[in-house]
Design a protein that fits this description.
two-stranded antiparallel sheet, 475 residues, 62% helix, four-stranded antiparallel beta sheet, alpha+beta, Outer membrane efflux proteins (OEP), 6 strands, 12% strand
């Protein structure tokens, strides 16, 4: 049931993609100037991301293949015509010949009877024919019913593959969204560090001017401020790149007039959302929901149909036809002289021996069927490994996040104590600087851990086949 609903969703999604692409287009960069939630970002990616749009064309191409597959079911309307001219020398008795008169004698009272001269007409040296007929297959060795099933399977498999591509792309967009949030939070961490160190440096300068501290303390703190400013510059650069990568994944073209420092306002905060399911449940969900597995199941069934088609090579083929035909007259050299009329009939083709062609095709189809089964089994194992890996990564990310949160709390307390001791004359500025550096690193590591947890959770959702849009909407 879940897969059926998913397919219907993808069909609706394809229509929405076409409408949105027609309304906005990937060059409408102004939409990114508005506040943007994660769900809105995912919707924009669905409408404009190049990978998704290419995958949509694959679905359309598969629909064309499905139509070709079912062509055997429908009647074919054919028109056949030919025309030829021969030299008279190629025509036997091509000239009119006078066979003379024939006479014979009968008993009286009839007497002698003499006929008129016998003249053979010229034979037509121009032959032409034209017929139009409707041909309907009646039996094709099982290929007709197989075509119905195969056509449906081709469309379903294409939609499943499209859904897999969409899910992979949305995972990339989700992670890029978190990268932008991380960049903004890291800038805040660096700003706090620069602000604190600048204030401490100013206080040291005042004490130096008052003769309470040596010049060394001023120089030492100038170095710390410069280092903090340099790290902030690097963080700002990373933030710019993260925003550009995010916009590229959304599928938007950045105008040349726009600065590399894109203006984005992301409204969904970077938070540690719980997962709430056991590993056993996650594994079961993955087997039921992963479209990659469902697509390979469709491939198995398609290979079954291919075996049926291959075996039909040694079975009879029966068609019925009806039409209308025009033929040139043989005994007239007038081009327009013709005979015409309707025709109806049937035809049977039954190959007796095809040089082992069908045997080879059946062997190929059977081998490909076994290959599809092996691919399904391998894909199932890979999916289970992905779930277990994502589950383990989420546990690790949770533990690291908790540890970094504890480090931040300890770092803030250590800085507070270092300042108290420094102000009371029991500590040195080195103690304060070391405490501040440790706190900045703890804050930065906490932000990275928060991002890594969010990415690990999104990866686990993807591994289990969950809907990232729905998961983001529930926040």
């Amino acid at each position: 049931m879940h897969r059926t609903v998913s397919l219907a969703t993808v069909v609706l999604l394809t229509v929405v993609v076409r409408i949105r692409a027609g309304e906005t287009g990937s060059s409408d960069f102004t939409v990114l100037h508005r506040p943007l939630s994660k769900v809105q970002a995912l919707n924009l990616a669905i409408a404009h991301n190049g990978t998704i749009l290419q995958a949509q064309k694959d679905v359309e191409a598969a629909a064309g293949v499905a139509i070709q597959t079912k062509a055997i079911l429908y009647p074919h309307l054919n028109n056949n015509a030919f025309y030829s001219v021969r030299q008279d020398s190629l025509i036997e008795a091509n000239q009119e010949r006078n066979l003379g008169s024939i006479s014979f004698t009968l008993p009286p009272p009839i007497g002698t009877i003499e006929s008129s001269p016998v003249i053979l007409p010229k034979i037509n040296n121009q032959n032409w024919a034209n017929d139009i007929r409707v041909v309907q297959s009646i039996y094709e060795g099982g290929r007709m019913l197989s075509a119905v099933r195969s056509s449906r399977l081709i469309n379903e498999q294409a939609l499943l593959n499209f859904q897999s591509t969409v899910a992979d792309t949305l995972l990339s967009v989700t992670n890029a969204f978190d990268d932008v949030l991380r960049g903004a939070m890291q800038i805040e961490v660096r700003d706090a560090s620069v602000t604190f160190l600048s204030a401490l440096r100013d206080d040291t300068v005042n004490k130096y001017n008052a003769g309470a501290l040596p010049h060394f303390d001023v120089l030492r703190q100038d170095v710390e401020v410069s280092n903090a400013v340099a790290l902030r510059v690097q963080t700002v650069g990373d933030y710019r790149v993260a925003k550009q990568r995010f916009v590229e994944l959304l599928g938007y073209n950045v105008p040349p007039s726009v600065s590399d420092d894109l203006s984005l306002t992301l409204t969904t905060p970077l938070e540690a959302q719980p997962y709430g399911k056991s590993l056993e449940t996650a594994l079961r969900d993955a087997i039921l929901n992963r479209t990659e597995i469902a697509a390979l199941e469709k491939e198995e069934r398609l290979r079954d149909e291919a075996i049926i088609v291959a075996k039909s090579g040694l079975k009879p083929s029966v068609q019925a036809f009806a039409g209308y035909q025009l033929l040139s007259q043989v005994q007239s050299r007038e081009f327009t002289d013709q005979v015409h009329g309707a025709l109806i009939g049937g035809q049977l083709t039954w190959p007796i021996f095809d040089g082992f062609l069908t045997k080879g095709r059946v062997a190929e189809a059977v081998a490909l069927r076994k290959k599809a089964s092996d691919a399904l089994a391998e894909a199932t194992r890979i999916v289970e490994l992905q779930v277990r890996t994502a589950w383990s990564n989420l546990r690790t990310a949770r533990a690291v996040l908790d540890a970094q949160a504890d480090n931040v709390a300890k770092g803030e307390r250590a800085l507070e104590l270092a300042q108290i001791r420094y102000n009371e004359g029991d500590g040195t500025q080195i103690d304060v600087l070391n405490a501040q550096t440790a706190l900045t690193e703890a804050h930065g590591s906490f932000v990275d851990a928060l991002r890594n947890y969010s990415v690990a959770r999104a990866s686990l959702l993807r591994a289990t086949g969950a809907d990232l849009q729905w998961s983001s909407r529930r926040r």
